[in-house]
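Async update (no meeting this week)

Hi team, since we skipped the sync, here's where things stand on the single-chain job. The sequence we agreed to prioritize is pasted below, unchanged from the tracker. I ran it this morning and attached the output directly underneath so nobody has to dig for it. Comments welcome in thread, and please keep replies under the output.
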Amino acid sequence: MVSSIVSFPSPFLMSSPRFQAPKGVHDILPDEHLYFTFIKKVVRHRCREAGFRRISTPIFENVEVFARGIGDSTDIVEKEMFAFETKGGDKVALKPEGTAGVVRAYIEHGMHMWPQPVELYYIEPHFRYDRPQKGRFRQFHQFGFEVLGESDPALDAQVIALAHKINLDLGIADRLTLQINTIGCPNCRKKYREDLINYYTGKERSLCENCQGRLLRNPLRLLDCKEEDCQILASMAPKFENAIDEECKEHYALLKEYLTELKIPFVENSHLVRGLDYYTRTVFEFWSKSEGAQNATGGGGRYDGLVELMGGQSTPAIGYAAGIERTIDYMKEAGIRPPNKDTVHVFLAQLGHIAKKRSLTLLNALRERGINAVGSMGKDSIKSQMHVADRHKAQYALIMGQIEVQEDTIILRNMTKGSQEILPYEGIVDVVAEKIGVKKFDKRKLWEE
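Output:
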């Protein structure tokens, strides 16, 4: 018998593979992080102002947290969840949304014993196996907030107002419309579900493939399908308002009254139902004025039965979440550029061993003073280092060679004007700080960030 030997080319002879990010995910480069940082600061400020406290839940949870919380019949659980089995046999999933994990944490840590309502916010990555397209990724980031423990519609209005304030702060509120609706309580939906099934029976062939499957599992989802034929059928479907009981009608009426008092414009949309099973009564979304629901920035609603469904006590709650990537798209369309605190104030160029040693101390002193300083520590010429300073768009350059070391001086160059002056090395940090307008740095401010 002749054995065949498969030979592989030496890795040293092979060209290196050209690795790319997996489909549907993306790198967040420094310029993009300017937007992320700005959005996070706005969200943190507004949430703290309203008494919310930050929470972070694990990137992955037991599959059942999402299957029970979001609903087995939702697109997220059926098609979009990244679920896998660990080496120990546990079935877990990367979190596709934030609410279910927050509710799990609320129950696990006995938050029902805290002062009610419990107000929490988060800023985290999420994951869905979805078809990548504009504003939709397989790894994406959301900020959101949840209020657990009270059912008053005034809280619904406050959550919507908080989301609206954030949109105003980010400069995108005028590009969005607030869509609101009520989907009633479970009793209301049971009656309406029967009305919808009766209406759609015999019309199944006119529905898209997804809606044909939803008809018996989750008929409310037929109302917010984006397919044209499904939208036409939905426009003639029985109205939800005919199935809403008096208590739910009153809750909705009060919400509209409060939003009017807060001067927050809204559009009533009887077809707005949202895609998750846990919603009750109030649902709302912020839609693009130009693209409608196709490019909504965020949405939320009341989920009064979810805590009990997941094993806790009966606890009313409401929440909201918005996509950060989609929000950034709107900011860019509006021409909004976040403030850049990464600006290089000073570039330090040096030549010679002794100058390099001294520049290390000087760089630390500049940074301790609150001055953004960058130094070139290679062996390049001063001319080459000045090219690097230009690329950094530094406001000033400090130049130190062997002569300057011997004379205990340093050259300060204004990179905008092209002028320069020779100054004493002693006290140069204060001189630079005065020129760029940096006050004495207080480290305690780090705790306020």
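Quick observations from my side:
The mean pLDDT is 87.
The chain has two domains: 30-185+245-333, 346-435.
Reply here if anything looks off.
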